[in-house]
Amino acid sequence: MEVRATAKYVRVQPRKVRIIADEIRGKTALHAAGLLRYHPSKSAKALRKVLISAIGNAQENHQLPADGLRIATIFIDEGPRLKRLRARAMGRGNRIIKKTSHITVVVEEFDAEPAVKPHGTKAKPRPTFAAPKARRGAAAKAAPAPEPVTPNETTDTDVEEVAPTVAEATPVAASEAPEEGGSATPVAEETTSAPESAETDGAAASDDDKGAQ
Known about the structure:
This protein is α+β, with helices and mostly antiparallel strands.
């Protein structure tokens, strides 16, 4: 359904109004009204008044929602010209022509398309206070986590950490202990030193006999 509103004898040049009308033609009614509200030109202010009037006619006369309306067509026709005279030198006068416009805005009802979420986009993660995750490259270089060990199983690290057992020292007899001089076979040294001690004992005995005589 189309609803229109018209403003006549608007003191704006039609050329200037058509420039603004080209910017909002085909847009939704509320969006176009928002754009015209902050436009600095005089023609935008006049065009917005007509657009607001068309939206009001649709709501009051046909019970149409404002957010379901869009601009169908906009007509900017030239109205009657106002002629004025400006005094010039030597008793002459120049004519001043003030143009007017007839502005017509037609709005229509349309079915708003539901907003479609673009495919392939993901929502940004919300910030958390957890520890930051490692980067992809750092995670690849990091050593893999050790597997859980059951009480009956042992790993290489467990074997390495166990301290080596030391055997208890056995007591050594005085005859078996090596001398301070150090010899790998103390028994052999005893056998070799026995004749020498016998000779020395015999020499000492002979000396004692000679002294007794």
